[in-house]
Each structure stands twice: as structure tokens, then as C-alpha cells.
Amino acid sequence: MNQISPLAFVHPEAKLGDNNVIGPFCYIDKNTVIGDNNVMQNSVTINYGARIGSNNEFFPGASLSTKPQDLKFKGEDTICQIGNNNSIRENVTISRGTASKGTTIVGDNNLLMENMHVAHDCVIGNGCIIGNSTKFAGEVEVDDFAIISATCLFHQFCRVGSYIMFQGGTRTSQDIPPYVIAGKEPVRYAGINIIGLRRRGFSNEKIELIHEAYRLLYSKGVLKEGIEEIRKNLPECEEISNIIRFVENSKRGIIR
Length: 256
Description:
Elements: E1 3-4, E2 9-10, E3 15-16, E4 21-22, E5 27-28, E6 33-34, E7 39-40, E8 45-46, E9 50-52, E10 57-58, E11 63-66, E12 79-82, E13 87-88, E14 93-95, E15 103-106, E16 111-112, E17 117-118, E18 123-124, E19 129-130, E20 135-136, E21 141-142, E22 147-148, E23 153-154, E24 159-160, E25 165-166, E26 171-172, E27 180-183, E28 188-192, H1 194-199, H2 204-218, H3 223-233, H4 238-249
Parallel strand pairs: 1-4, 2-5, 3-6, 4-7, 5-8, 6-9, 7-10, 8-11, 9-12, 10-13, 11-14, 12-15, 13-16, 14-17, 15-18, 16-19, 17-20, 18-21, 19-22, 20-23, 21-24, 22-25, 23-26, 25-27
Antiparallel strand pairs: 27-28
């Protein structure tokens, strides 16, 4: 049975699972689907088009599936998809998609800290930690287990690789490749995320292999030549393949 405060509004067309807690002054619009065991503290807004999984906690002032802040948006029937086991803190805003992709996605087991913004058509992976007041412009992609500090700014269409650490107060208009630390002004490569990788169970051998891959990649003035050096000198493995694939598929170019 759901626990719905008498001071909350739940549209009669909203679809709720079981055992949800909906606090006072929450607003749940029509065309919303909510799973089981979610907790919505006071003053949470679930707008049109939200698709929410189970076991999430939403803190006061969070607003999900908001109308995109995009002048090209003409009222298309789009959605905002939130997975399971997320902690979405105070005043977080997540826009729904536009005609470009149709969906904004936040995966599972993420911590989105207070006052951060996820714009239209973004894709956030799993196990990410995103700091206070960080802002993602439209169509940013963040891969699994990224750690992004507070007050960071990401240009539209940027991609952030898995297992990275991004320094607080940093802004970027380029892609951040996997396994690295990025920071300073202007943003640049600052080494391998050694502590983060160890915490995630990477062996010293794998970490050294990743470090050598980036040494070779950045040793050449042209990234294509660096990739050729990696292929020639390092054994094939999942981590090396991830680095090569990320760099080759980067549309905005990677940080140097």
C-alpha cells in the first residue's frame, strides 16, 4: 500500500506501484509511471513523461521530467527515465527528452547531489556520483562509475568516460576519456584515477597497463598515431579496447 500525504497531489492517471511514500506538497502529473518502494520527501515534483523505477529516494525540491530548456522543443511527447536505487538530492532538476532522442536517461545506483541539473536527452550511466551544482547541457553522456565533483560545467554533446574523477569547479567542452583524472583551467589530463580504480577492484597490473596506454596516446602530437602505438605495444584487453574505442568515436575531441 502506498503512503500518500493528504497534502500531496497525485493525478488520477498516474500509475503507481506499491509501497511508495509520497510526502506533503508533492505533485505527480499525468502520464507518469512509478515503480515500488520509492520515497518522495516533501515538495518533490514528478512532471509529465516521468518513468521511475524502484527503491529511489527523492529529496525536497527535486523536479523530474521538466519541460526541456530548449527553444526547439515544440511539445513533443517525450520522457524522462529514472532507474533503480538512486539518491536524488535537494533541488535537482532533470529535463525530459526532445525530438532529438526522445528520452533523458538516468541509470541505477547513482547519487545526484543538491542543485545539479541534467538537461534534455542526457544519458547518465550506473554508479555515478555527481556533485553539488554541477550542470550538464543537452545530450551529454556519462558512462558508469564516473565521479564528478561540485560546480562543474559540461558543454552540450560532451561524453564522459567510465571510472573518471573530475575536479571541482572545472568546465569542459571536450570529451573526458575513461579511467583518468581531469581538472585545472583549462581542463586537461591529470593522470590515472588510481585510487578510484583500486576501490573498484582493478589490479595493479591493469592500472599500470592503463597508465602506459595514456602515456603512449599522449606521446604523439596526433592522437591517431598514439592509438597506433597502443595497438603495437600493448596486449588486447577490455580496458585498452575501451580507451581506443572512446578516442576513435569522440566527436568533440578528448582533453589533452
